[in-house]
Amino acid sequence: MQVDEDKINTFNQSKDIFDVIIIGSGPAGYTAGIYTSRGKLKTLIISGSLPGGQLMTTSEVENYPGFPNGIFGPELMMNMRQQAERFGSIIVDDEVIKVNFKETPFFVKTYSKEYLSKSIIVCTGASPRKLGILGEEVYGGRGVSYCATCDGPFFKGEDIVVVGGGDTALEEATFLTKFGKSVKIIHRRDSLKGSKILQEKSFANPKIKFLWNSIITKISGDKKISKIFIKNVNNQEEKELDVGGLFIAIGHEPTTILFKDQLELDEHGYILLRENTKTSVDGVFAAGDVHDFHYRQAVTAAGYGCMAALDVEKWLNENKD
């Protein structure tokens, strides 16, 4: 846990209140911090349980602008972190365990400290739902992926499997046919949940095949994934399948439990925005996958981080003491 005690103590001795606290890091949080601290706002970033977010577990990122040869996810996040720090952001590697957005200044408590702030930007992101099977963690980033748009080009000429039966799974399977030699969709039921138009497109695509009433029980390989083990849920029959890539598309979970009674959320737990990046609470803003369940890209998260920072700066100017 890294805490710049000298900087925090300096702020505490001066006003005892930050201009903005950014909860969460990743592309949204770090970008927001770059903009707010560059705008001379006293900025605290509380990085969360995984400093840098999901990109810290991603190998090569090829679709982030400015890196023609790609860049490793952790390296990109460290670059963003250092840039935010260069402009004056204080970054605390700690986890928020309690907030109070019902009165101002806003209260934020971590495992080690309590903080007050005039404004908040929530950038806690979302995590892909996992199958929870043997080998899934081992081969994450080594053939197991949760984002076809991010990783699809790495699987040219491979036999690819997609798990899921909703719109996301069908969209990802269709996208992956551009790269894979074949694409199989494994679904635990005998019918799909996705929209009719996406179903029709999938059924009509000669590269896409379906394995119905089936689940994956195990993933194996050497340096990367090479085989999955499948079980039919009706007759319990088991078989092996050679694969070069496995894409798990069974949904995401926004990291918003902490804000359940503080901010307005939709039925899936995503933060609902009012105007631009404003939440249901005046002075609290949100950026990235914590509200964006459609795009879920590093570059869009960074864009939302920029928007939220500019919205905060404008809001603070309009609400000066």
In short:
It contains seven helices and 19 strands. With 321 residues, the chain is of the alpha/beta class. α2 packs parallel to α3 (73-86), α2 packs parallel to α7 and α5 (167-176) packs parallel to α6.
Q: What is the strand and helix layout of this fold?
A:
Blueprint lengths: L4 H10 L3 E6 L2 H13 L4 E4 L13 E2 L9 E2 H14 L3 E3 L3 E5 L5 E5 L3 E9 L3 E3 L15 E2 L2 H4 L7 E5 L3 H10 L5 E5 L9 H9 L3 E4 L2 E8 L3 E8 L5 E5 L2 E4 L3 E3 L29 E3 L11 H21 L3
Parallel strand pairs: 1-2, 1-8, 2-5, 8-19, 10-17, 11-12, 11-17, 12-13
Antiparallel strand pairs: 3-4, 6-7, 7-8, 9-18, 14-15, 15-16
Helix pairs in contact: 2-3, 2-7, 5-6
Question: Describe it for me?
Answer:
- The chain is elongated, with a radius of gyration of 22 Å.
- With 321 residues, it is α/β, with parallel strands linked by helices.
- About 2% of the residues have low confidence.
- It contains seven helices and 19 strands.
- α2 packs parallel to α3, α2 runs parallel beside α7 and α5 runs parallel beside α6.
- The strands form five sheets. Strands 1, 2, 5, 6, 7, 8 and 19 form a seven-stranded mixed β-sheet that branches. A five-stranded parallel β-sheet has the order 10-17-11-12-13. A three-stranded antiparallel β-sheet has the order 14-15-16, with no helix packed on it.
Structural class category? alpha/beta
Helical segment tally?
A: 7
The multimeric state of the shown protein is: single chain
Q: Roughly what is the average pLDDT, rounded to an integer? A: 91
Largest sheet: 7 strands, mixed
Spans of at least 5 consecutive residues with low confidence: 10-15
Helix and strand succession?
HEHEEEHEEEEEEHEHEHEEEEEEEH
Distance between the termini: 34 Å
Give the percentage of residues in beta strands.
Answer: 25-35%
Radius of gyration: 22 Å
Shape: elongated
Task: Give the beta-strand count.
Answer: 19
Please bin the fraction of helical residues: 25-40%
